[in-house]
Amino acid sequence: MNLELRPEQQDVVNAVSAAFRAGHKRVMVSACCGFGKTELATAMLQATADNGKRGAFLADRRALVEQTVQRFDKYGLESGVIMADHHRFAPSKPIQVCSVQTLLRRRWPEANLLFIDEAHVLSDAVRKKLEAKDCYAVGLSATPLTKGLGKYFDVVVNAPTTNQMIERGRLVPLS
Fold it and tell me: Can you give the pTM of this predicted structure?
């Protein structure tokens, strides 16, 4: 299946790209639940692979690793998985889906672009990786208001709010 981003998702991708071109290496994307943050990552990681570069998507729970792999598969983005005893361990693939807990005990994959899911909860290992500034990084969060995140991210890209997404018919209103 071919991934086509919605206009508001493409706007966020464009804003992240503009932030990178402006010299920022670590960008936080603030987007509500249901916005399609994983689709953003999928599109950008596909472009990374298409350009002969390497990328990684970090998740802090086993279920999120599996959901991400399923989403990547849905759109034809080949990936390896770095998670204990996972049958799709394939470190030579240019895109990796990684369990943060597994990375605590293993070597980090080589990556030009790193996505951090649930970036409002940063482990010490992820903090150290962000401090190194050795690759471009995008944090994804619906709640990026955790004290101290400004130390790890240079700029915030705000997606449309929940109310704006409801007004556009993208989300169902709570009743």
Answer: 0.95
Closest CA to 57 of 9, 14, 111: 111
- Position 63 scores a pLDDT of 95
> Which H or E run includes 43?
helix 37-50
51 φ/ψ angles, rounded to the nearest 5 degrees:
-90, 10
DSSP 53-122: --EEEEESSHHHHHHHHHHHHHTT---EEESTT-TT--TTSSEEEEEHHHHTTSPPPP-SEEEETTTTS-
Instruction: Supply the DSSP symbol for 139.
Output: E
Q: Would you state the pLDDT for residue 175? A: 74
Token digits of residue 8? 């508001």
The dihedrals phi and psi of 158, each to the nearest 5 degrees, come to -95, 125
Q: What residue type is assigned to position 89 of the chain?
A: F
The first and second tokens of residue 55, run together, are 């990328």
